[in-house]
Amino acid sequence: MARVVVNVMPKEEILDPQGQAVQRALGRIGVSGVSDVRQGKRFELEVDDSVTTEDLEKIAANLLANTVIENYDVVGVEVAQ
Known about the structure:
32% strand; 81 residues; three-stranded antiparallel β-sheet
């Protein structure tokens, strides 16, 4: 078994209202110096040896991300214990 991480983020040209709300709130809690915040999603999948890299790309592109407005990255393949 392995753990695969898929990170999904809005494309740069897409407005991110949640990230903007966090950025505005930073001043209210006394934090300065943060120039941009983008909010995304992280998925962790436990997979067995039968799942291929092609399968992972298909899962990310067709189920986890809306590729019209989001980019995804399949990362962090770790051996599950």
